[in-house]
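Continuing the series of single-chain predictions for the mutant panel. This is the parent chain; the variants come on the following pages.
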Amino acid sequence: MIRNKRIAGTSLDAAEFVLGGVELGAGLDLAESFRLMDAYVNRGGNMVDTAEIYSNWLPHEASKSETVIGQWMAERKNRSRLIVTTKGAHPRLDSMQVPRMSETELRHDLEGSLTRLGTDTIDLYWLHRDDASRPAGEIVETMNRFVVEGKIRWYGVSNWTVERLAEAQEYAAVHGLQGFSGNQPGWSLAVADPDRFTDPTLVFMDDALHAYHVRTGLSAFAYSSQAQGLFTKMAATPGNDFPEKTAAMYRVEDNRRRLAEVKRLADRYGATVNQIVLAYLLVQPFPVFPVVGAKTEAQLEDSLGAGGIRLTEEDCRLLDAGLFQVPTAK
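Parent structure:
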């Protein structure tokens, strides 16, 4: 069974692994999506990550992932067992340079999500992007209005810089308002080169952001936690080379060295490469919830198996090679 742990600053006890919902209703049809979510909750999972924008790049109805999750909750009658979560405020895909962070746009996304998910309240709502031209306090005020209205219980951010995150949290503290209850950065064991990001609005974990989480104890929900299966695919490639379709941002030489350490640890712990990659995130000195991607029950089962592995401080030191100083979680 998946362990639960508290999301810092809330009363929510979330499953240690969050099921990624990008493929729901997109790469997976309705029946396959239902089977995957059933398998996840049967193992003790209670949080499926989705977003208003998910699958909007495909030629079908908008926000299909949310709709599928809403249909599944209605059919299974399991809303009360779940932490319902979604994300809004993503730029439109044909105008990524144009932020969508006004109160009107935020309300539009939130109320659409409530309808598609078939719920009156989102337990943890994420701002998918930022608008640095707006004072962070203005956004905090808007989100607190949604809390007062009962549309959301807690909220967090994704792809915000550490400077903007700190600005918003300080404003909330000074004004006695609810601040962010979590942060969703891109984060995996793989080194990602920001100079090669195809989407410049992405924010991945770095030294400054990691230090902020250590100092504040803010929970992190790591998206791209498996780096698109980078290390698993490399391990299956002759010479441990980068597979042909490896994203440019992961074509970093240090990832070859990390793979060697991952394989060594996989042998030592009797684990898969994927499990070591995920286990690395579980031993941070603040709450971390990896968002795991899966298209099959077998893939999901493999990822959840990482919960039985606890890497040591020395293991993490060798994997990190000084990128972060990561003590073993107590």
